[in-house]
Amino acid sequence: MSDDRSVQFSEREALLFHSEGRPGKIEIVASKPLTTQRDLALAYSPGVAVPVQAIADNPAMAYDYTAKGNLVAVISNGTAILGLGNLGALASKPVMEGKAVLFKRFADVDSIDIELKTEDVDRFIDAVELMEPTFGGINLEDIKAPECFVIEQTLRERMNIPVFHDDQHGTAIITAAGLINACLLTKRRLDEVRIVVNGAGAAAIACTELMKAMGVRSDHVIMCDRSGVIYQGREDINQWQSAHAAATDRRTLTEALHGADVFLGLSAAGALKPEMVKDMAPAPIIFAMANPEPEIRPELAKAARPDAIVATGRSDYPNQVNNVLGFPFIFRGALDVRATGINDAMKIAAAHAIAELARQRVPEEVAAAYGVAHVFGPEYIIPAPFDPRLMEVVPAAVAKAAMDSGLATRPILDLDGYRQSLRARLNPTTSVLSLAYEGARARPKRVIFAEGEEEVVLRAAIAFKEGGYGTPVLVGREEVYDKLRALGIADPTEYELHNSRVSPLVPQMVDFLYKRLQRRGYLRREIERMVNQERNIFGALLLQLGEADAMITGTTRTWAQSMREVLRVIDAAEDRTPFGIHVMVGQSHTVFIADTTVNERPTGEQLADFAEQTAAVARRMGHEPRVAFLSFSTFGNPKGVYLDNIRDAITELDGRGVSFEYEGEMPPDVALNPKQLANFPFARLSAPANILIMPGLQSAHISAKLLRELGGETVIGPMLIGMEKPVQIAPMTATASELVTLAVLAAGEIAR
Ligand SMILES: NC(=O)C1=CN([C@@H]2O[C@H](COP(=O)(O)OP(=O)(O)OC[C@H]3O[C@@H](n4cnc5c(N)ncnc54)[C@H](OP(=O)(O)O)[C@@H]3O)[C@@H](O)[C@H]2O)C=CC1
Ligand SMILES: CC(=O)C(=O)O
Ligand SMILES: [Mg+2]
C-alpha cells in the first residue's frame, strides 16, 4: 500500500485475497451431521419440535439447544468505516466480515456480520432490538458519533444481552491499557498527564471518558475536531462533546499540543505534523490510532522526537493499539458467564489484564516470532494480537468482573479450570502458523521458487515478497517478467530472476554437481544438460551455492520425481532418513501423519526416527506430542505378519528414553477416540494421539490424500523432513497460499 517498511500487500493482492475461492471471508459450517434420514428427522421435522417446545417452556434453554450462546452479531450501518468515513452499509461489509472472522480466530466466538441500510437512529435501534432472540451478544461497529451514543445507550436499556459499541469501549479499553503502561515507562502518574485527544467522535469520546474515570484530570484534557479545539462556549458542538469542552484559550491542534504529554489520535490520516510533535513535552506519548492510515507514521514521529513512545492501530509497527486486542476476549468472557451486559467493571478488568500481560515476560514462541524487542519498554507497551495468553487471561478477568458486579447469570465456579478450557479452545497450530509468519517478517529469508514460470508460483512469490516474509528468488526465463507484469507488478525487475541459460553461476554448478555424481554414472555433458534444463536441479544448486536460505518446488512434477531431482543435489541430513509429514488442522485439533511421502516399507528403527522427528516438529508447532503407531491390529489382535516393524519401533523408543508418550500398535479409532482408548487402560497415552505414525507408505499416503480430498480439514504439507538444507516439495495441486505457508515453514526451519 505504500513505500516503506510497513508495505505488506498491494491493492491487487487485497482484492484477490477477498475474491479468491469462495468470495468474502466467512461461511457457515454445520456442527451436526446431516447425512442420514434419521439425522434429518432429528435436526429438522419432526425432531426439532422437541427443543422448540423446551425453549417455549423455558427461554434459557435456547442456550442449550441452539447456537445463540456463542453467537455474536457484528452490526454496522457504515457511517464511520474505520477512518474512511461514511461509505454506506454495503461498503462496510468487508470490515464487518473481518471482525466476525477475528471473533472466531482469536476467541472461538461464532459471529456473523449484519449491515443495516439506514442512517435513521430509530429504525436502526428497532432492527437490532428485534434480533435479540438470535444472538448471545451484539457488537456495534463503525457507526458514527453522535448517533452511536443514542443507539448503544437505548439498545443497552432495551436488550437483555451484552450490547457493546466496539469503537467506543473496545478502543477505550486498549487505549487505557497502553496509556497505563506508557505512563509507567515515562514515570508519569495518570493524574498528572496532559492529554490532547484529536477526534471528537465515538472512539475519542469513549476513550476520554474512560481515562477520566481512571484518574486523568478533566482540566488536563483538550479535545479537538477538524475545526480545532473543543472549548467551552463553542457553539457547533453536540452534548457529548460539550461534556469535554476545555476551559482554554488555545484554539488549534498546534496550540493544544504545546507542552502536552500525550497525543491520542482517533481522527484521520496525517492529522499530526512533525512540527507539532516537536513541541510536545519530553518523552511524549503518541497514539496515532486512525485506520488504516495513522495520524502520523511512527518513523516521522520518531524522527521529530526520538524520545517519543509511539503506537498505531496497525499490525505492521510495534505497539498496535487496536480494539482487536479486546472485543474477541471481552465477548468470550461475557458469553461464558451469560452476562446480561458489559459494564465498566468488566471493561476496567480487561484493560488491567491487557496492561499487565505486556509487563510480564513474553513466551518464547511469541518473542521468537516477532523478533523485535518484546521486553516491556517503549517498543512494547501492549501485547501483540497473536499472543496466545490474551485468550487465557482477558476472558477470565472479564468473567470474574461480571460475576463480582452481579451481571453473570451463569457464574463459573472453577476459574482455574475455566482458564485451562480457554487455552484448549484455540488450536495452537493456528497461532503457531501466525507466529511463523510473523517470524518470517521479523527475519526475512531468501527462498528459491524453482518453478518461477508457473502462474501459481509467481502469485505465491508475489505474496511472499509483498507480505514481507522474505525475498523470492525465481528460477525461469526472461518471459517471467512479462508474466509478473500481467499479474500487476509495475516493475518486475525488482524480482530476482535466475535463468540457467545465462546464469554466470552455471560453471560453478556444473563443477559442483559433476564432483558429486561422477562416480554415480553421470558424464559431464549430462550434468551440463541437467543444470541447464532441470529447474529443480538448478534451483537446488542455487541453494547449495548459498544463493538462498530455502527452496520450494513441486507444482510441475510428481512429488516423487521432484524428490529424485532434488536428491541429486542435496543429501539427507547426517544420520537421517528423509520423510514426509501431512498436518491436518481442525478448529480445535491438529494431527500429524507420517511418513506420507518417501519410505515404502520403513524398518522399526526408521519408524522410531519418524516418531521422534515428527514429535520435534509438533513441539515447534505448539503441541505436546503423543504418538500412536497405527495398524489394523490392536495390541496383537488380530495377529498379523507385518507387525514386527511396529513392535521394533516401540522397543527402539523404549531404549532411547524419549520425552514424549508413544504407544502401539493400534487402529486410528483407538488412537483418536478417548472412549475406545479407555478400553485399553494399560495404554501409555494420557489423551488421544496427535501424531499418527503409519506402518508403511501405502497406508500413510492413502490416508493423507483421502483426508485432503474428503475430510474437509485444512491440510499443511506434505512437509519434507530430514534434508541437509531446507527444501520443501509442495503437492502439484498446491494453491498460492499453500506455497507461501510451506515457504514460510521452510525459511523458519519449522519444517526441517
Ligand atoms: N485503533 C483502533 O482500535 C481504533 C481506531 N479508530 C479510528 O478512529 C477514527 C475515528 O473513528 P470513530 O470515532 O469511530 O469515527 P466518528 O465518525 O465517530 O468520529 C470521527 C471524528 O474524527 C474527527 N476528525 C476527522 N478528521 C479529523 C482531522 N483531520 N482532525 C481532527 N479531527 C478529525 C471528526 O471530526 P469532525 O466532526 O470535525 O469531522 C470526528 O469527531 C478512525 O480513523 C478509526 O479508524 C476507531 C476505533 C478503533
Ligand atoms: C479498529 C477499528 O475498529 C476502526 O478503526 O474502526
Ligand atoms: Mg471500528
What would a concise description of this structure say?
The chain has 31 helices and 21 strands. The protein is α/β, with parallel strands linked by helices.
Can you describe what's shown?
- The protein has four domains: 43-161, Malic enzyme, N-terminal domain (Rossmann fold, 3-Layer(aba) Sandwich), CATH 3.40.50.10380; 169-426, Rossmann fold (3-Layer(aba) Sandwich); 437-548 and 563-569, 3-Layer(aba) Sandwich (Rossmann fold); 579-722, Rossmann fold.
- The two termini are 33 Å apart.
- 48% of the residues are buried.
- It is of the alpha/beta class and 752 residues long.
- Helix 6 runs parallel beside helix 7 (147-158), helix 15 (344-359) runs antiparallel to helix 17 and helix 22 (506-517) crosses helix 23 (524-533).
- The longest helix has 20 residues, at 166-185.
- Residues 1-7 have low confidence and may be disordered.
- The structure holds NADPH dihydro-nicotinamide-adenine-dinucleotide phosphate, pyruvic acid (PYR) and magnesium ion.
- The site of NADPH dihydro-nicotinamide-adenine-dinucleotide phosphate has 29 residues, from helix 8, helix 9 and strand 6.
- In the C-terminal section; belongs to the phosphate acetyltransferase and butyryltransferase family.
- Residues 23-156 form the Malic enzyme N-terminal domain.
- One of its GO terms (molecular function) is malate dehydrogenase (decarboxylating) (NADP+) activity.
